[in-house]
Amino acid sequence: MKKITALVLSLLLCFAMAGCGGSGSDQAKPTIEKSVDALAEYLELTDPTDSFFAMIGAEDGKKYEDGKIEIYKFDTASDAYKDMEKNKTIMNMPVAGIKDGMVLFIQDDYPGDTEGLTKKFNEVEFK
C-alpha cells in the first residue's frame, strides 16, 4: 500500500512540475514611448531627415536610411489612419507595418533586412 501511495504521489509531483514549466513564449514584449524618434531608435535606424508627413495626414514622420525607410505617427481616430489600416498602403505603396497609430514603410530597394525590421516593429508595444 505504501508503494502505491508513493507511486501516485510521485506521478502527481511529476505532473505538477511539468505544469509549472513554461514554453518561453510568455516573455514580456519590449515597450517604448509612442513616438517616431523612439521607434527609430528601437529599430536602430540612422540618418533621420524630415518628411512631408502632414501631406498624408500624419501627426509626425521622418525618413531614415537615406530615405529608404519612413516612420509616421497618426491619430488612430483619423480618416487617414483608418484608410491606411484598411488598405495597408501609403499613397498606393504597401506598408511594412501598422500598429497603434504608428506606421512603418520600407521601400523595395532598401538593402537591409526588411523582414527583421518588420518583425521587430510588430513585436514592440507602445506606452
Automatic annotation (TrEMBL):
Residues 1-18 form the signal peptide. The keyword Signal applies. Keywords: Signal. It comes from the Bacteria. This is Lipoprotein.
